[in-house]
Amino acid sequence: MPIVHIDLVAGRSQEQLKQLVKDVTDAVSKNTGAPAEHVHVILSEMQKNRYSVGGVLKSDEEN
């Protein structure tokens, strides 16, 4: 039973997240031989004011 943890900054649509877990499941199933129904994907979303790169919070970056 493969378990995949994905940490990402919040802000993606429900449709994007659905496609992400489908694509990850397909890739893991293809490359491990595990049936798709046994692949678990855990998404952990962080708020932009709780994640930084280079000492700058993502919430403080200009888009």
UniProtKB/TrEMBL annotation:
Keywords (A to Z) from UniProt: Isomerase
Active-site residues annotated for this sequence: P2 (proton acceptor)
Domain 4-oxalocrotonate tautomerase-like residues, every copy: 2-60
GO molecular function, one term: isomerase activity
SUPFAM superfamilies reported for this sequence: Tautomerase/MIF
Enzyme Commission number(s) of this protein: 5.3.2.-
Keyword Ribonucleoprotein attached: no
Keyword check for Protein biosynthesis: no
Protein family membership: Belongs to the 4-oxalocrotonate tautomerase family.
NCBIfam families reported for this sequence: PRK02220.1, taut
Protein name: Tautomerase
Species, as recorded: Lactiplantibacillus fabifermentans DSM 21115
